[in-house]
Amino acid sequence: MSRGVKSSLALALALATLTACGPATATRLPSPSPTSHSRPAPTPSPSPFPTPKPNTAHVFVIVMENRSYSQAIAGTYVAQLATKYAIATNYHGVSHPSLPNYLALTSGSTWGIADDAWHALPAGGIGAQLTNAGLTWRAYMDGMSGTCKASGYPYALKHDPFPYYGSDCPTQVVPFSQFQQDMAGAVPNFVWITPDLCHDGHDCSTQAADAWLQQTVPIILGTQAWKDGGLLLITWDEGEDSANHVLTLVIHPGTLIHTSDRAYDHYSLLASVEDRLGLPRLGQAGKATAMDDLTLTMPKLMPLSG
Predict the structure, then answer these.
(1) Which of 35, 143, 197, 244 could form a disulfide with 155 if both were Cys (CB 3.0 to 4.6 A apart)?
(2) Rounded to two decimals, what is the model's pTM?
(3) Could you tell me if residue 20 is inside a domain?
């Protein structure tokens, strides 16, 4: 074996050892107590963050529904992804029911909400962050047939957090029917996908949700945006057990660490997204531990000189 190959392999092993032995520093944070619809909690303020990364990063997020860890990983395709890429084995939702989890994932706060009703929240969230930073983004809503606030079944407004911020439908929120065409063109820096109420597993079986992922994920993995250091995160909004234990997949080229038992939650996912895109962390994401162990990549082998 050449000296250059040995050096690269040694570096990869050293990174794996250091990360695996790292402390589980993330702390589960309680959600704020419920407030009235007309008096939402204060707007989450971004925490300072070091020098932003170049705006060439691409992050994809898919949010599935209502499966505990053991239930989600029982899907045939999901199990294949878990074997090939990385998984957080100690990841938890932050609340019940759906809506507060979606708000946590996109703003770093549940806003004291403990139901799935309509709530008029101040403008903000990760969508506003991305727009203000000059980063492109789109949220693809499966089943959306009208506007993001007025579409019938199988679309669910409670699974689309973006209209809640500022009580408006951002132009970046579009029907999922545009997804495949966009992935064949200029892929946005941030891609959010909400499957419809069947495809996400809410109203249909684990097998039906698994089949939808098997159709959708390869489209993402086939983009140059993902192949060039992109990151795909697939999580479930809430679990079916008392611990709210859910599966989260971390899918990127050159996976180095395949499993992590560090304590993570939806604020950790938001922190990971914002760090990747060079954005300040919102709300509770500022105190969360990003999933940086699972986003480590295998160093590329340097060509031998001479």
Answers:
(1) 143
(2) 0.82
(3) no
